[in-house]
Amino acid sequence: MPFDLTINRTVHHVDADPQTPLLWVIRDHVGLTGTKFSCGIGQCGACTVHVDGRPVRSCSVPASTAIGKPVLTIEGLSRDGSHPIQVAWKEFDAPQCGYCQSGMIMSTLALLQQRPSPSDADIDAQVRNVCRCGTYHRVRQAVYLAADLMKKREVKP
Amino acid sequence: MSDTGDRAGVNRREFLATVAAAHGAFVLGFWVPSRANAQTVRATNWYEEPATPEINAWIVVAPDDTVTVRIAQTELGQGVWTSNAMMVCEELQCDWKKVRPQYASANRDAREKAPAWTLNVPGEGATDPKGGGEPTFGNRDPKGVSGIPDSLYRRMRTNAASSVKDGRYYLQLAGAEARERLLLAAAALWNVPVTELTAKDSVIRHASSGRTTSYGQIAPRAAQTPHPHPEQIRIKPPDQWTLMGTEQKNLDVPAKVTGETIYGIDIRLPGMKWAAVKTCPVYGGDVKRYDFDVVRNMPGVRSAVQFPIPDPALTRGRVFSGGVAVIADTWYQAKTALDKMPVEWTIPPEHAAFNSTNMHAALVAALDRPGTVRANQGDVDAGFAKAARIVEATYSTPYLPRARMEPGNATVLVTNDRVDIWIGDQSPQETRFSAAKITGLPETNVHLHLCHLGGGFGRNGNGPQAEHAIMIANANRGVPIHMLWTREEDFIGTTYRAMGVARLKAGLDADGWPIALDVRTAMQEGGFGPEASFHVTSRYFVPNYRYSNHTTKFHVPVGTRRGVGQAAHEFYRESFIDELAHAAGKDPYRYRRELLARTNLPYKADMIKALDLAAEMSGWGTPLPKGTARAIALEERGTEGNGSATVSAMVHTVSVSREGKVKLERVDVAHDTGFGLVNPLSVKKQIEGQITWFYNDAMHQACSIADGRIVENNFNTFPISRIDEDPPVINIRFFPTSHWLIGMGHDRATSVESAIGEAIFQITGKRLRDLPYSRHDLKWS
Predict the structure, then answer these.
(1) What's the CA angle centered on B305, arms B301 and B309, to 5 degrees?
(2) Domain co-membership, A103 together with A143
(3) Is ipTM > 0.95 here?
(4) Can you give the CATH number for the domain in which A28 is found?
(5) Which one of B145, B160, B354, B631 has the minimum C-beta count within 10 Å?
(6) Does B26 sit within 8 Å of A13, measured CB to CB?
(7) Quick one: A18 and A67 in the same domain?
(8) Residue-wise pLDDT tens for chain A (157 aa)?
(9) Domain coverage including residue A24
């Protein structure tokens, strides 16, 4: 049953079962592969995207829940890596294998939208993504730098 | 170099650029020629035919001075993409900002031999700063499993923390050979002696005439200018390094923050179908029957393929399971149908009889049977007879998988004359061999298009992801098949660090110093690293010492998980030294220090230095709040001899709340550099990552066995720590030593395991000897 999804401000006409998890529609029907599959049960956060401004584990919600709502994926942040979160990530050389980092960055975006000056406790509570390489130490520093950069540049997340 | 060949209207150097599809295209099958789209080139990394002639197999210089460096190891987050390029570019003396890594061709590797000047390690081994060090895999082996092949790119494996150590000499030589030929070409062009030329940042100068040329300009001539005596080229020793030894950000990171990086899972090909796989959850089991008719009419479903247990000759003797795949237009369709398809298994009853309890009992029983004696010095029994006190402890460690983030996958197209494989792969030479054996085609007709890996932690889990995909695609010749495991299937398709037990028994003299030590460890047959940390001689002085390994047979396939033998064995060793120190009433740091000082080990001064530095950094001995404790441990590999070695020590400051919540508060790390670290930034990142890795082993992770099956098979039952458990403070200091490192990518920070246990003991009085700690009641009052 075809339906439309608005992803990264572009309308995509999708011919898929609307009960298909949003992740697979994004990856296999729309063709945006920056959002990753890892656990399939909403645990690890590698599939985190924003629906209507809120972070969701896209492997565990049907695509139908995103109909009529804006969806934002890592590709929508910036194409050239210029978004403050991406800049901060590069500054600290945060990624290792990088597979979890799209989700990590999308969780950070949600955090900074809610709390532009996050505390350690805020980060602990909201950036719940699994990183198997163990990049957490650099991610935390990068979150603080990203918060500073976003304020300095007055970027609306 | 038939990577470029066309076939049936498909140019295989084109591929579906999913990132490009973001710009308005919504239809799968949107194709972009790879060279026509800069983003595409940035996002993918596999071998391409160069537009300009290569100088040697590692180096291509384009007219704009862009240097392509071919990388034969796989980037899985450890930074090899950057460190390998640094080793080449140090010697090439090119502009680092213009360096573009690219995967070496495993197909060319099957066709061409390595240049003769790369074959022999220069210098005098591990303690010669001017030489190439002492490779771990120094002997010759055509498959590259136990040694190094003579084929073009030598060792294409990524394992054992050996990429820098084993590849350095020939990567430096490759850069130096190219530099010398660029200089020779310029000298010939200008008709001046080559000795009057200098090369720096991709520019060649002739000082007396003021002439200059760039690498890009002279490269076509250099490609035609052989070096008359390449065997006489020398590599730079560390005191001449200008790029190596500096902190360089990883070249692959920018594409990882935009989602552009193409991992194996992201491959899309025209006409590609997806395969979801279910294999028998009990290893050694196979499909008895399945009923495809139940699902054949589900949306997108095309077919089903049964495949056998992968030939153990292709999986280094390991026996996995047989299985069945459903093939569909999308993976979710395939998986949905597979979940509904009835499948029955043939399960070996003797395997189904295994469970964690009887396996643990079998390992403990093995300790009392004769084992392989790896050290026997003095008279241990006489030492025990004379001892004032006997201390004995038995430790246990569970089965542990890698649980890398990217589930196993591969995309394979088999036709009647070639095999193409798109895969993130830590061992492409082995995969090439598997493809040839499964399809009956020669290895020279196998083409691997290598992708970055979403985590590795031991050769793709040492599992049969490639073999599954090749078998399924071989049954569907002409159709590209993208096989992807579920997370649960990834827990079956991986190999495990072997479950282990150890019994350590020491006799102490009246002052608390050990006079006899008997160490017995047990793992199943085939478990990796049985010798680790205890073999040859005791690292801590004891005049009477015996070390033996004991085995039994289990059905779970085991492999080289990050940390290999050191992870469990250093947990046993360092935990026991803590217990002895407490029995002796001595400070665990001073106790270790004195016992190291009493040895004749060649690197004892380095080990003492590591302990002293870590203790000093941590404020060892200064007061801590109640409920907080420090613990120290030594980490070493290679110190039983006088060759390559890596030495570190860490102090972990740990708190335990009265409710039993453990927090790793701070880690102070003292780590030796050997003669030099190639990229100290990558080393720091690897240390940080390994602190998390072994923290998880210590606190959370275990796979148990029930009815022969792995029980914990997703992240709800196999927990992985989040950012809140990361230590707020990590201090890392390096100190120089006079040997080449043995590697540092997999067995650093093992100390987290013993140290948290020691801290729990100090705080709660509970001495815990089996991991993970979170399964114990840690409350105290």
Answers:
(1) 145
(2) yes
(3) yes
(4) 3.10.20.30
(5) B145
(6) yes
(7) yes
(8) 899 999 999 999 999 999 999 999 999 999 999 999 999 999 999 999 999 999 999 999 999 999 999 999 999 999 999 999 999 999 999 999 999 999 999 999 999 999 999 999 999 999 999 999 999 999 999 999 999 999 988 655 5
(9) 2-76
Among B residues 312-351, those touching chain A with beta carbons less than 8 Å apart: 330-332
Q: What is the pTM of this model?
A: 0.95
Q: Are B430 and B373 contained in the same domain?
A: no
**Together in a domain, A89 and A72:** no
Boundary of a domain, candidates A76, A94, A122: A76
Looking at the partner chain, which of A21, A74, A90 has a beta carbon nearest the beta carbon of B254? A90
Distance, CA of B485 to CA of B276 (rounded, Å) = 6
> In this structure, are residues B219 and B61 in contact, taking their beta carbons and an 8 Å threshold?
yes
| Radius of gyration, alpha carbons of chain A | 15
Amino acid at position B578, single letter: D
Q: Please give the Cα distance from B674 to B637 (Å, whole number).
A: 13
DSSP 3-state percent helix, strand, coil across chain A (nearest 5): 40, 15, 45
d(CA B156, CA B71): 9
C-alpha R_g of chain B: 27
The total of structural domains in chain A comes to 2
- State the residue range of the domain holding B764: 356-400+497-775
- Non-local (6+) Cβ contacts of B75 within 8 A are A97, B45, B81, B252, B452, B453
A-chain residues near B724 (CB < 8 A): 124-125
Residue B326 to residue A139: CA distance in whole angstroms? 39
Residues A29 and A71 in one domain: yes
Phi/psi for B775 (5° steps) reads -85, 0
